[in-house]
Prior knowledge:
Elements: H1 2-25, H2 36-53, H3 55-58, H4 64-72, H5 78-104, H6 129-150, H7 156-159, H8 163-182, H9 188-197, H10 203-207, H11 211-228
Amino acid sequence: MQKPLAEFIGTFTLVLFGCGAAVIAGMGKGPTAIDVLGIAFAFGLAIVAMAYGIGPVSGCHVNPAVSFGVFVAGRMSFGELIVYVIAQVLGAIAGAAVLYLILSGKASGWNGGLGQNGWGAGYLGEYNTTSAFVFEAVATFLFLVCILGVTQKSNPLHIKGLAGLAIGLTLTVIHIVGINVTGVSVNPARSLGPAIIGAATNPTALAQIWLFIVAPLIGAGVAGLLFASGALEVKES
Length: 237
């Protein structure tokens, strides 16, 4: 049970700290408020922390799309994929639930937001479905290219233990570019947790969840195929 436990804790941390930065610090005023850059680094640094904390146990996927890409690349079995995804989704739901409990204690109340992903009228930059889908698919593809590339055993960053830093910084720049488009998912579990826990106050997020499952899986699958085919995989001598 070491690997699923690690994935549960890692995804829990990502949702609590990443989404927490968006809805607690992100909606503040004055010196305690943060902007897009602060939220982006919250997500990225959460991944860096977990990469070194649980990476040696499970590889720190904390994302069903990452696990799917790793599976397509031929680096894990289908059984492992299922176990990882279940642990990740449960961790995301638990992280969103804890965030909900924290925000419920705000004296002035809050609007029920938990950092849900979305698109369209009334959501951040009000981008349309096509823009949201393209961003999520392409961003996840590039994220997986980084992850699958940097974790190759022959990669100097992997050898020197710097893979987690590269992955975390990649997630940071993805958020800097995409927060205004979809709030950035590239992670079905990260989207599912807040959407499920916040469904009563924001049913739209749950209705739109399909995009944050389908688009990341497509992007991750394409990246996985490139590595499985040998196009980007470095063969050890």
